[in-house]
Amino acid sequence: MKQIIIIFSIFLLLGCKPEEDKSVSQEKLDLYFDKGADVNLSNIERLSFVDSAAVFIENIYGNDSLKTDNYFKIANRYFSLLEYEKYKTITDKVLKFTQSNRDSLNIAKAEYYLGDYYFSLSKQDSAYYYYVTSGKKYRNLNDRHNLASTILHKAYILHYEKDFVGSESETVKALNLAIELKDDYLIYECYTHLGSSLSGLGDYEKALEYHQKSLLQIKKLENENYKPILQAQTLNNIGFVYQSINKHEEATQIFIEGLKIKNLESIQPILYASLLDNYSFSRFKINPKEGLEDFKKALKVNEKIDHAYGKVNSRLHLTEYYLAQKDTLLAIENNKEAYNLAKESKYNKELLSTLEFFTKLIPNEGLSYAQEYIKLNDELQKQERATRNKLARIEFETDEIISEKEKISGQQKVILSTSLLVFCFGLLFYIILYQRGKHKGLAFKQRQQESNEEIYRLMLSNQDDINEVRNKVKRNISLDLHDNILNRLASTRLNLFAISRKQDEETIKTAIQHIDAIRVIEQEIRAFSHELYNDSTMNKSNFKNIIEELLKSQSDTYDPVCRFSVNFSDAINNMSPEIKMNVYRIIQEAFNNINKYANATKIDLKLDADSEGVLHLDIYDNGVGFNVKKIREGIGLKNMKSRAETIKGELIVESEKSKGTRINLKVKLN
């Protein structure tokens, strides 16, 4: 059967993939949980399912709330199977990642679980500490259900330390909360513990009343799996009260009813052994000859599960049985076993019982055992008082620690706020200084641009003066051509006209001289023509030279590969100085922006004028680009647009992230 379950668990684990739907994964987990809690299975079988669930959660879930909830379910099942170390390992995991997530509710729950762990190991001070710290958190979170549980567990510890009054007081607090919450299981636990506390106070009649209430409360519980265990526990408590008031007939009937519960030995062997041992003891009290076999059977079960407390009680009952039979050797043997185990496990109450038996079994050493008994009893009373004081200090010091933490937290908030304020002022001061510096830089750059524009205007103005002088010179030359060369040509034409009337030798010689004069005039005209052409070219090429110098400077100085296509047509060369200046500045500003911000590797520039007299300037770079709608316009873009408006042109900027930038200018020249 065990092999089938293991194979089935592995099959489910292998069938799970990280991407499968969490609801499907949760269904598989729920199957593990149901099997792990199924009291009809053996403990080994149940444990295999719980182990499989732990592996499943580790592989499937991250540090989310679902993983936390499932880990708590696993811890609960380990606890019910008495696998305390596995229970603590899981709880420590939960506490670690809930602390990292600052999940106050689950931190409190994990601390509560650690309290249960230490309580199960009889480490009462550690258990009490965790119950107190978790209780404080639950109170702050207004989680009344879990607060009631922590109060009840504090009552358990106070009962263990024989502070029955304190235990009863805490249990009543928990019971009031449980009734308000209408929590049937918590009400059951409170009834049960009130019965135990009242037994400790010697009020056995009231104790029986509350244990009977517990028995009735079980019927209201919904979880059918746990009902048999709770019923067995309650019957054991009732039987023990009857034993305490020497009503062994009634106790025997109660214990028999508890032992009838199906599969109790495999489900809860500790509880089964306790019922069997108590049943044997009541039978022995009724008839000193009865109970031996069941005493031995109870001892065997306790030894099998290595339950120290159960073994000590079984040995003590066997000691009392053999003492009644006057079998001193077996009585001493069992009492020594109980003595050693009680001393080793620090079960001081049971240790006192063994010492009391030694005084009866070994009378000649009775004095030494009596002295040891008195000494131990005094020490126990001191220890109980010290423990009760320690538990009170734990609660007080926990309050102090919480108060101190709150105080430190407040101080840290003040420090953090002050630091944040200082940082903000520092940042504001830096921003102001930075903006001032930036403003000064921009103002300087603007003044520099204005200076450059003034220089360019002066250059163009000087160029206009030069052109005017040249035009005057050309007009003078034109007048010379008209007044000199044309007159000479007209005179020569008239002289040559004579050959049409006379063709004698002298006339022909004269005509040849005039033809030579025409050749001289031709040479003069050619010379004048060349001179005029060169002057015109020089005038028109001045803008061309400035643009070519700018393009050459860009190519030589910066990394991007440049491709320029410029058509210096008459329309462009004859532009007004204002248009020339602004076109030049727009190109210059575009290059400046590309070099600063674009991280481009290529620049394309095209400048020409179409047949309708419209200038077209197109500049493209393959740089990082920007979102035209989101990026606030800088001074450079504003200047370019302002210049375009000045010459009544249209400037369009197109750009996208990682797709470069294109600047297009259109200006009507006519």
UniProtKB/TrEMBL annotation:
Official protein name in the record: Tetratricopeptide repeat protein
TM helices/strands, residue ranges: 414-433
Gene3D superfamilies documented for this protein: Histidine kinase-like ATPase, C-terminal domain, Tetratricopeptide repeat domain
UniProt keyword terms in alphabetical order: Coiled coil, Kinase, Membrane, TPR repeat, Transferase, Transmembrane, Transmembrane helix, Two-component regulatory system
Residues covered by the Histidine kinase domain: 583-670
Top-level taxon of origin: Bacteria
A Pfam family per the record: HATPase_c
UniProt TPR repeat ranges: 232-265
CDD domains: HATPase_UhpB-NarQ-NarX-like (cd16917)
Coiled coil: 370-397
PROSITE patterns: HIS_KIN, PROKAR_LIPOPROTEIN, TPR
